């Protein structure tokens, strides 16, 4: 079976879970054609991402002339169907703050994708995120292309369901995937009751072979790792404030902040203001091997987010047999079990976060190792890439009718 994945910006350093999903499906004999609207403007340090970029067809690189020509061909070949797709695009624009022009561009992208799907023999389209990629897939279907489905991660989709026409996208999709039970509950708010059976849970996943032999917990002073884009929702500023409360209480405490983003100057300023230069290192984005090395050097992962879907970094830390301190939000409690695999704290509460780190520091190495093993067992059971790809493959086959 041949599937087209429709993506906005791909690959990106923070979206390695999409790459793993694609490759797991390919190991199950699916043929995947990768469409992305645009390449990432971020550096791609991971060789896996570089290889994905080379395999991806970038729609906007076709240029405005070819996209407009694709649109004109659709209008000439099937004017009634084209008119229906145009009305749908304008309806989406009415819900959104992006305006008519942006959605006419989506329609042109959809025309190109529809025609390329026909040329490639694609039987089904799948989009990641309920944003413009799902809009393009939906419009391509309306133009006569194959059926579509999409995966919703959150939190962006849950923050603006009306502006993203989330209910419309669910209603027209063959099925819609949530990455957690929490995510499915949020989709149920926007799906008609008759579409509830089309809402599926397929977890983001890890490749167990990449975490075959977890490193033992390191000796020496407490080392923490935090991984994610430097953006408001990831909560790194709360973590810095908690660190400021802890440096006098935990000798030689160190935190590695792995990632990058628009908040980097603010974080650098806060580190200097609190005198934390010796205690915090900003590593930038690292390749997967570099992330695993940082986790091996750490005693625990800290995820201080305000909003999430189901965080991949927590899965990777648990697979590496590291306890996790995380905020009690979204799908995270489906991963982290208080007192068994880590600690859960209220989002935005720097004092509670500091107390959790202090509790970690006061836990014996033997108990921390036991928590790490319990977390590893849990994530390998629930988030194996082959198993999750098998679930998704079954949904694709059902949608295609094979």
From TrEMBL:
What name does this protein carry? Glycosyltransferase
Question: What are the EC numbers?
Answer: 2.4.-.-
InterPro entries attached to this UniProt entry: Glycosyltransferase_grp1
Keyword terms, alphabetized: Glycosyltransferase, Transferase
Q: Name one GO molecular function term.
A: glycosyltransferase activity
Q: Which enzyme class?
A: transferase
Q: Establish whether keyword Transferase is in the entry.
A: yes
Which organism is this protein's natural source? Leisingera daeponensis
Q: Which Gene3D superfamilies match?
A: Glycogen Phosphorylase B
């Amino acid at each position: 079976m041949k599937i087209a994945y429709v993506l906005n910006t791909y690959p990106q350093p923070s979206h390695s879970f999409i790459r793993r999903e694609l490759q797991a499906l390919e190991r199950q004999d699916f043929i995947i054609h990768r469409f992305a609207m645009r390449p990432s403007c971020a550096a791609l340090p991971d060789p896996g991402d570089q290889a994905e970029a080379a395999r991806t067809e970038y729609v906007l690189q076709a240029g405005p002339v070819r996209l407009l020509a694709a649109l004109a061909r659709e209008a000439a070949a099937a004017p009634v169907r084209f008119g229906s797709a145009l009305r749908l695009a304008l309806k989406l624009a009415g819900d959104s703050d992006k305006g008519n022009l942006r959605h006419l561009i989506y329609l042109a992208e959809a025309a190109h994708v529809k025609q390329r799907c026909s040329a490639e023999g694609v039987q089904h389209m799948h989009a990641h995120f309920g944003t413009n990629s799902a809009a393009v897939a939906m419009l391509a279907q309306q133009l006569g292309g194959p059926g579509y489905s999409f995966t919703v991660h959150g939190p962006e989709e849950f923050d603006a369901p009306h502006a993203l026409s989330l209910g419309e996208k669910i209603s027209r999709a063959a099925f819609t995937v949530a990455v957690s039970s929490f995510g499915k509950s949020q989709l149920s708010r926007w799906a008609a009751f008759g579409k509830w059976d089309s809402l599926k849970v397929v977890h983001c996943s890890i490749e167990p072979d990449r975490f075959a032999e977890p490193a033992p917990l390191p000796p020496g002073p407490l080392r923490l790792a935090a991984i994610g884009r430097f953006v408001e929702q990831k909560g790194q500023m709360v973590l810095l404030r908690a660190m400021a409360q802890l440096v006098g209480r935990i000798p030689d405490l160190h935190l590695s902040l792995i990632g990058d983003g628009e908040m980097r100057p603010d974080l650098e300023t806060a580190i200097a203001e609190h005198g934390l230069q010796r205690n915090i290192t900003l590593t930038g984005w690292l390749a997967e091997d570099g992330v695993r090395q940082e986790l091996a050097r750490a005693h625990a992962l800290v995820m201080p987010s305000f909003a999430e879907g189901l965080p991949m970094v927590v899965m990777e830390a648990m697979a590496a047999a590291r306890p996790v301190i995380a905020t009690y939000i979204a799908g995270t409690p489906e991963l982290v079990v208080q007192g068994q695999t880590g600690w859960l704290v209220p989002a935005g509460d720097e004092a509670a976060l500091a107390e959790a780190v202090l509790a970690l520091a006061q836990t014996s190495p033997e108990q921390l190792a036991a928590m790490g093993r319990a977390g590893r067992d849990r994530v390998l059971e629930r988030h194996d890439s082959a198993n999750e790809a098998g679930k998704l493959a079954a949904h694709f086959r059902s949608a295609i009718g094979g």
